[in-house]
Write a structure and sequence with these properties.
four-stranded mixed beta sheet, two-stranded antiparallel ribbon, 1 helix, magnesium ion binding, EC 3.5.4.19, about 40% strand, hydrolase, Ubiquitin-like (UB roll), mainly beta, PRA-CH
Length: about 120
């Protein structure tokens, strides 16, 4: 069956959440938003492209930082309202210079930092 991005369920702002996961080891790296055009650009170029809500523009991951996300596979959830983007990540995925944006765990009612920033 041919993929049609119009069949995805976008929110009132035309956005769909996209979770980036390391294709090699399964680490959940980050969550960001995509528009229909960002989905298509990602599929066409192989470079993961998100929609920046703050800048109201496309954001190709790694364009300025060099921390590129190369698309391995895109998956659609059962309700078609979220995406899983399996990637080959170069460098840290998080703007805090950590491998993952999910570096804070909630343990016994406390926040615990479980991942330090990468040197550099």
């Amino acid at each position: 069956m041919q993929f049609d991005p119009q069949t995805l369920v976008y929110d009132a702002n035309g956005l769909i959440p996209a979770i980036a996961q390391d294709a090699a080891d399964g680490t959940v790296l980050m969550m960001a938003w995509m528009t229909r055009d960002a989905v298509m650009r990602t599929l066409e170029t192989g470079r993961v492209t998100y929609w920046s809500r703050s800048r109201q523009s496309f954001w190709v991951k790694g364009e300025s930082s060099g921390h590129v996300q190369e698309l391995v596979e895109m998956r659609v959830d059962c309700d078609r309202d979220a995406l899983l983007v399996l990637v080959r990540q170069t460098g840290p995925a998080c703007h805090t210079n950590r491998r993952s944006c999910f570096y804070t765990a909630l343990r016994d009612g406390h926040e615990v930092e479980i991942m330090a920033p990468e040197p550099g």
